[in-house]
Amino acid sequence: MNTDSSSETAPGFFSRLKSGLSRSKSALSDGIASIFNKRKLDDDTLDELEDLLITSDIGVEVAAAVADQLRQTRYNKEITADEVRAALAEEVAKILEPVAHPLTVDPAHKPHVILIVGVNGTGKTTTIGKLAQQLRAEGKTVMLAAGDTFRAAAIEQLQIWGARTNCPVISGKVGADAAGLAFDALEHARADGIDVLLIDTAGRLQNKANLMAELEKVVRVVRKLDPEAPHSTLLVLDATTGQNALNQVEVFQDVADVSGLVMTKLDGTARGGILVAIAQRFGLPIHAIGVGEGVDDMQPFKAESFARALADVEIPGESG
């Protein structure tokens, strides 16, 4: 999904992002307004601001950076809530900018193998379907592999997406060996000259050792056909889980060589700040964010747009 065509400007996406982050931004915006209501910037207001940012999941480091910036520039001066929100947006954008990278497909790999990982319920299968549709719209051929063989619903859902996007789906019976299925899918994709192979995986965190062993086996087996595969490993995170998303990144960093992140469900969360904390701690590329179920509701991640939506600051030329 090389997104140089600026598809982030799809009609209404910024509005949907702002709407999706409404609970996060309302808590932040209202909290900032109550703290900086015709008050001078002093140690008490800075402490209150830091507490507000930390409870908004933005993280201790980011909260400290925003407070330090204001302390250096506005200490003992009157400051408006709008000025604080603008400073917050600026600090958040600085943290997010280095990790905002579109997902690129390397045409030197045929196919470019993308392994999709994450706990059950984060939206992995839907993300695969959306990626497939976007890649197909770019003219690429795509194959799907139903590697979450433990859940019949995941297999059926991927088959529905395959039919919807006109992509072949390699699937097996419930309980089939996921690594063997991934191997078969890569064999088929190579034989058919497919551009991109998207492999779904199970996401059971109850037993990390089992999860690790299964994903390691998938990687080991596909490397028998292509020593460089998978070429991308995307971790799908559910924004509504808040601080737990940090734990998931840690687990899957141990289990799989995660190359980038996709954040889903920003349309229904008060926990949007967690993306900032994740960027600060792990520095992993953030490829895309989702603000709804529709295919156009997953768009490339843009640091400034996200920072301004979170801080409730308008983008010049944008509305809503």
Q: Descriptors for this entry?
A:
320 residues, alpha/beta, Four Helix Bundle (Hemerythrin (Met), subunit A), Rossmann fold, 2 domains, 8-stranded mixed beta sheet, 12 helices, 8 strands, 48% helix, disordered N terminus
Q: What do you see in this structure?
A:
The chain has 2 domains: 23-99, SRP54, nucleotide-binding domain (Four Helix Bundle (Hemerythrin (Met), subunit A)); 112-311, 3-Layer(aba) Sandwich (Rossmann fold), CATH 3.40.50.300. It is elongated. By secondary structure, the chain is α/β, with parallel strands linked by helices. α8 (178-191) runs parallel beside α9 (208-222). It has an 8-stranded mixed β-sheet with strand order 3-2-4-1-5-6-7-8, sandwiched between helices. The model is unreliable at 3-11 (pLDDT under 50). Helix content is 48%, strand content 11%. The protein has 12 helices and 8 strands.
Q: Average pLDDT, to the nearest integer? A: 87
At CATH level 2, the architecture of the largest domain is: 3-Layer(aba) Sandwich
> Count of DSSP E strands?
8
Question: Regions with pLDDT < 50 over 5+ consecutive residues?
Answer: 3-11
Summarize this, please?
This protein has 320 residues and is α/β, with parallel strands linked by helices. The protein is built from 12 helices and 8 strands.
Question: What layout of secondary structure does this protein have?
Answer:
Layout: H1 13-20, H2 22-35, H3 43-55, H4 60-74, H5 81-96, E1 112-117, H6 124-137, E2 142-145, H7 152-165, E3 169-170, H8 178-191, E4 196-199, H9 208-222, E5 232-238, H10 244-255, E6 260-264, H11 274-282, E7 286-290, E8 298-300, H12 303-311
Parallel strand pairs: 1-4, 1-5, 2-3, 2-4, 5-6, 6-7
Antiparallel strand pairs: 7-8
